[in-house]
Amino acid sequence: MQEVAEFIQINNEKIFAVFHVPEKTDISKAFVFIHPFAEEKLWSHRVYVSFARELARQGYHVARFDFRGHGDSDGDFIDSSLEKHNKDIGTVINQLRVKFQVDDIGLFGLRLGATLAINYASSNNDIRDIILWDPVLKGERYMQELLRSNLAGQMALKGKVEVTRDDLVKQMRSGIPINIEGYFLTYSYYSELSEIDLQKLKDRKSINCLINQIVRNPKQPQNKTFLEFINKFSEKSELVKSHEEQFWKEIKTFYQTAENLCSSTLSWMNKLK
Amino acid sequence: MLINTILDEQTKMKSTPVIFSNRNGLKLFGILEQPDSGAKNIAVLLLSPGIKMRVGPHRMYNKLSRVLVSNGFTVLRFDFYGLGDSEGELDQKVLVDVYNSIQNGRYTEDTIDAMDWVSRTYSIDSFILGGLCGGAITGMLAGSIDNRVKGLIALGLINVFEGGEENFSKFVTEGQLDELKRGYVSKLTDINSWKRVITLKSDFRTIFKILLKPFRVVSKRIREKLNRNTKKKIEFIHDDSSNTNPKFAPTFFSMLQHSRKMLLIYSGGDRLLWEFKEKFESIYKSHLSDYSHMYDLHIIPDANHILSLSEWEETMHNLVREWLETNFRNL
Asked: Cys staple from A110: which of A95, A133, B2, B3, with CB 3.0 to 4.6 Å?
């Protein structure tokens, strides 16, 4: 198994990517890993690395990369946009095809990374499989979470909330980005993400989709919205639950792998073979 | 087009993904960044903070690296074993245990191995180590035993082990208590706060500690007076019931005695400042005065641990620039 780290040039900027190459394989399939938002990317990074290495052990090619404005890629977070994200995903897919001659490419993502995976797949007909770990289906709700984290930051710093959620939105609208744990969110990016409502997505019966719902309590029922959403995809699509903690945040447990998520995902992938 | 080394025309910075092995054969991953021309004969190693790998919180290390490269330094940001994209696994299951193992020197050898690799590959034999929190203490531990290290950029240098929430009242600093006291006073008219007191939900151990502060102040003054009278030979004090890292004081003085320049930057709103001041600086005040020319301590007012506002980060960049200009201009 080999890991190749390289920069890919795109419009005078560079994207950082790591390619996981299996030793010998009769699987001609690759997955592109799409990372979650801002600090969630850093907290979940090691789980992504472990899962990529496991897939490579199983014979899959994997490409992990940093969106422009994230990690080791060029650009600033403040310039993020959905259009750029889609271009970055497309660029990495092309490199994977050119470099390793793999045509069958699937997408994997966690949280907002999963959302961006569906967003890309819905406008590109060449994606057959998508693996979604706890996808964000409603962008607006997720943006509210982000605004809450700004309020929590104000509380920690000043002992009170001086700028309310509405005022934060007004601030962005007036052209002043807001600070989410050191990342600057503009109104245009905020609006783009808020407008995402995957429940309105048209059926995509050509895509095999796995939704892996992360539950902190194994007795937690299946998410009804996920159940409805999975019906938009092929018959091989499935909603499963995996018992894990919220490893994309700072939690007490040190997460190197998400074993339950990995094993349930691999068993679905094995069914697809 | 896939490229190994890439030059940014705007910043004139060359970036190269690199892989090297540590002494245990584990492959460590990093990004080497250099000026396009005129690099100084000294490299800066930015050491991962906690588990947040080579980019740091909100890409702090990438931004700091640009500042360093624009000042002529070669920079290596890399992942310690078990973190980021490097090989290896950690035994710890709890995050606090990982943090404490780092503070105890888990990554000292990886840091030395990284210097060995840079020396071999780029013929650079002088280093400045830098980092935030766990990265800063790793830099100090490695710097105190490796003569190639000429300086340390320490952001939020941590001198205590993490005790966890359950031990909060045991290890709380006077600075934290003052903050809490202000909070408690402001809630004196809040009925819900009194409900917490009546239903015994309040943290009484911490409240008692606040009330007993005047007695501790008197006893501290007596101790300081005694310390002044017994000056010169440094006796490192370690109380087993304290959360202070016993390696901190000897290592700090070792850095000073070996003429390693240190830039210490603390955030005004970070408990680590109080930890440093109360559990190190005030104890060794008389000895530190002999070395005041060897280290610069700056506090960025109100800032948080990760310097999340751009003005805080900019202040940090300026402090780093000035310190490098003063101490490493001719290398």
From this structure: A133
Contact A107, A121 (CB under 8 A): yes
Nearest chain B Cα distance for residue A6, angstroms: 6
Task: Count other C-beta atoms under 10 Å from residue B268's C-beta.
Answer: 12
Q: Is A251 on the interface with B (CB under 8 A)?
A: yes
CB contact under 8 A, B59 and A5: no
Residue of A nearest to B84 (CA): A46
Is residue B259 within 8 Å of residue B294, measured between CB atoms? Answer: yes
Integer Cα distance of A149 and A103 in angstroms: 40
Q: pLDDT by residue (tens digit) across B165-199? A: 555 565 566 666 676 666 667 777 777 777 777 77
**Quick check: B81 and B20 in contact, CB under 8 A?**
no
d(CA A152, CA A133): 26
Whether residue A183 lies within 8 A of chain B, CB to CB, comes out as: yes
Query: pLDDT tens, B226-249?
Result: 655 555 678 887 777 789 999 999
Q: Tokens for B83?
A: 């973190």
- Asked if B18 contacts B76 with a C-beta cutoff of 8 angstroms, the reply is yes
Residue B147's SS3 state is coil
Q: pLDDT (tens digit, 9 = 90+) per residue, A9-48?
A: 998 899 999 999 999 878 889 999 999 999 999 999 999 9
pTM here is: 0.89
Which region among A67-71, A124-128, A241-245, B167-171 has the lowest average model confidence (pLDDT)? B167-171
Residue type, B221: R
SS3 helix, strand, coil % of chain B, rounded to 5?
A: 45, 20, 35
Of B53, B183, B308, the CB nearest to A179: B308
- Number of inter-chain CB pairs under 8 A, A vs B: 99
Q: Which burial class, exposed, middle or buried, applies to B225 when counting CB atoms under 10 A from its CB (0-12, 13-18, 19+)?
A: exposed
pLDDT 10s digits, A135-170: 999 999 999 999 999 999 888 888 889 999 999 999
Is A51's Cβ below 8 Å from some Cβ in B? no
* CA atoms of A128 and A110, how far apart (whole Å): 18
The closest alpha carbon to B178, from B83, B104, B273, B95, belongs to: B273
| CB of B47 closer than 8 Å to CB of B135 | yes
Rounded CA gap, A64 and B186, in Å?
50
Determine the Cα–Cα distance for residues A266 and A209; give it in Å rounded to an integer.
13
Classify residue B259 as left (phi > 0), alpha (psi -120 to 50) or beta: left
Among B139, B140, B67, smallest CA distance to B323 is for B67
Cβ contact A14–B6 (<8 Å)? yes
**ipTM value:** 0.94
